[in-house]
Structure prediction request, 731 residues.
Amino acid sequence: MAAVSGLVRRPLEQVTVRDAINQGMDEELERDEKVFLLGEEVAQYDGAYKVSRGLWKKYGDKRIIDTPISEMGFAGIAVGAAMAGLRPICEFMTFNFSMQAIDQVINSAAKTYYMSGGFQSVPIVFRGPNGASAGVAAQHSQCFAAWYGHCPGLKVVSPWNSEDAKGLIKSAIRDNNPVVVLENELMYGVPFEFSSEAQSKDFLIPIGKAKIERQGTHITVVSHSRPVGHCLEAATVLSKEGIECEVINMRTIRPMDIETIEASVMKTNHLVTVEGGWPQFGVGAEICARIMEGPAFNFLDAPAVRVTGADVPMPYAKILEDNSVPQVKDIIFAIKKTLNI
Amino acid sequence: MRKMLAAVSRVLSRAAQKPASRVLVASCNYSKDATFEIKKCDLYGLEKGPPVTTVLTREDGLKYYRMMLTVRRMELKADQLYKQKFIRGFCHLCDGQEACSVGLEAGIKPTDHVITSYRAHGLCYTRGLSVRSILAELTGRRGGCAKGKGGSMHMYIKNFYGGNGIVGAQGPLGAGIALACKYKGNEEICLTLYGDGAANQGQIAEAHNMAALWKLPCVFICENNLYGMGTSVKRAAASTDYYKRGHFLPGLRVDGMDVLSVREATKFAADYCRSGKGSIVMELQTYRYHGHSMSDPGISYRSREEVQDMRRKSDPIMLLKDRMVNSNLATIEELKGIDVEVRKEIEDAARFATTDPEPPLEELGHHIYCDNPPFEVRGVNQWIKFKSLS
Prediction:
């Protein structure tokens, strides 16, 4: 039964992020036969993190392809296939390994439509878990949101919950541009309620639009991926103290929906950004820079504040790791500091 | 009889003082076709190779001659334009290697696919881009095939995927294009070219591995011109038998200065792929007259004598011309006539390339995304915005 759960829809039930991504891919594979999935262990292993469970049994070798451990090679193959008219989903077991293939993502995929003067499109999706996990140490914990978000020609999305995961993967697959989908391993097993719209085979979340997860009046808290959940927890705690946080789930890193953030800051006059990645040249840094350049700057009653991963390679020991990623208490602390409480 | 008619035609054309093409020459003065011997290919993992003789029709001969000459003159014109500063940045010329691009094209169908490295101008032309659109792209004008956005290394046309600036990146890309061919079941194949330098890229080995595993219809072609930039093959590769470097993939080594050898080998390799046997490696032994790029005189790591020797003994255009004239497929005058026409075509294209305006500044932000609603792109500061259309 468990093996089938990704394929059978259950009304109004809780769906994990893993199953949401699985559903999204399954629906798009069914809808368009040009869509296919390749990556390490995606087929017979059911996915290193079981995200592609059941897909190989349903679609077979032609459309669900196990690759050798050759990131640069198979990412390039995926890009070439996209150039020639297919719609590949290229999975990186984690985005840490995408560094070996990053030339294909940036130079072969992202830049090609521009370099060709609008002639050659690359309808490809690069997806996989991004950022910190638990106890996997430095080489397996890097967040690539800032690296990929830096590059024109790419779209970069970062889902938080199950609806995000399903709606964004479907939009990414249907987009005719290279889209990087930064998932989160620790979120895969987390269940969320699926709205009735989310259960539809045409449920899409537009790329480039943030979502206000919680309305508030005192401070804007902007985040992406797993930290969105921490922000909502912080907001619940602070609400008891009479502080109402407006929590924004970015959903998309690039193109960034700065307008939603600006409108919120113009209402609340305070801004805290929260991310898992390193502080320097990061997502929060970009948000702060853009706020300064736009209309919201004049509405700030205090400097914008960033909560980020610690500026170290991820350590292994639990106490060190716990202090290298933003916790709920760190978000609360930053919010209170910003509000001068 | 043939020799007598050829002699008569020469006398007549000299007497008439007109270009050979305008002299009324009875069609039986030319041979319809001729059979030539071509060098036997070195084989690896193959029992049989391409044929050692081939038939060249007069029509094909004239076509290959014209095409090779066009590539040659186009590259020389690019050299000139670069020195006159009309072309900037990188310019990697392929004069000397004309038999490769023309021969490859002759061995495949227009519906097949080709991808290559940055030394791409020859293939850009043989795949269907006009000399005008190539030169105008080199000079960065709006009439360039990539609207001036790409330059020398980023030119595309249907079934031709550039032009790639990153050495070796085109290896996996080409295997991916071949995967798409197999996936669609359309019996198309992909020629994936890389140089002797790129052959040492790890991603080429990765591409070979997956192409072999999945039996992709990919012809991996190593264009071995003996130098990766300034590094000779002997100084770069532990094994310079590039046709064997696919290990488990069969391979053949081909005389890349002979357009007929290249054609036959390509046909052979294409058939191999199309028959479902999987991928194959082809090494084209060729030579570039220019240095690596326009900033390289090309004589610090090789001798002038070596270059001159190649020109004298192995020039691909000269080889074809001699064959055609000696077999009465064409006369020298007729071929000279083609030369005149090609020169004119190149001059016209160069005039266009140097007078066409640059792309409008308003288009700087265009073509970021495909099929996207218009949005704004930031310029060098927050006040400068460019509209971005797909």
